[in-house]
Amino acid sequence: MKKNIRVLFAIVSLVVFLSTTFTTNSSAATGYQGYAIYRDGVFFNYDWHAGIMDEPYSDYYLPVLHHAGSGDVVKWDSWENFLNGKNFKGVYRPNEQPSSAIRDAFVGMGRNLRTQQIPYNVMYQVYYDTSTASYYVQPDEISSMRCDGVVEYIYEWYYYRVYGHDTLWDVTKNDYWIRDHHGGTAITPKYQALNYLTLVTSSEPKSN
Question: Which has the least CB within 10 A, 54, 65, 84, 138?
């Protein structure tokens, strides 16, 4: 049942991706699309900020999808706004290498999140009402989230494990204990990248 739900949603997300993409007629992710990106400068430079590459390279128009923080929502943004004058720390992927088609699905899910106008929550990666959300929390059931929650929700929806104990790792599953396990400082963007993902490159992902 779980796989069927995710496969169906993967198809829907891919359709969204193909219908909204700014790039040329491509049905497979190119460049760094679908990979997570990080920069420093958070909490007096103690932590990082996270996003997802929506476009193949940083010098494309609005290449980043991220949650910019308090008072903002999940959105597309420019590379300059993502960096916000801070230092780029790298491009990361799930530890299990995703296919180009799955990276398409990552982008599609990110674009789905973007349409939901999801506000910020500093305490929880992904917050929702456990009494009303579906067994797997749909994008329109998310009431708030953090920047690292955007990365984790997208990856774990497609069963690419990021953070959490064996019974508590799937942040997309409607469960009080899972929701709270992914909260506070138990997981942060920097800790997420350095301990639960694989570095692709530490250089800015430019097209040339």
Answer: 84
* 207: in domain: no
Secondary structure (3-state) at 86: coil
Return the bridge partners of 183, or none: 124
Residue at 149 is within a domain? yes
> How far apart are alpha carbons 130 and 133 in whole angstroms?
6
Among residues 122, 159, 157, 100, the alpha carbon closest in space to that of 43 is found at 122
Instruction: Identify the band that residue 202 occupies on the pLDDT scale cut at 50, 70 and 90.
Output: very high
In whole angstroms, give the CA distance from residue 33 to residue 28: 9
- Tens digit of pLDDT for each residue in 40-59? 999 989 999 999 999 999 99
Query: What phi, psi does 193 have (nearest 5°)?
Result: -65, -50
- Distances from the Cα of 197 to the Cα of 94, 105, 147, 189, angstroms: 5, 18, 15, 11
Q: Which one-letter amino acid corresponds to residue 90?
A: G
Q: Do 188 and 45 touch, CB atoms closer than 8 A?
A: no
Q: What is the CATH number of the domain that holds 99?
A: 3.90.1720
Q: In this structure, which amino acid lies at residue 11?
A: I
| pLDDT on residue 3 | 52
Indicate the Cα dihedral angle 191, 80, 95, 135, nearest 10°.
80
CA distance 122 to 69: 8
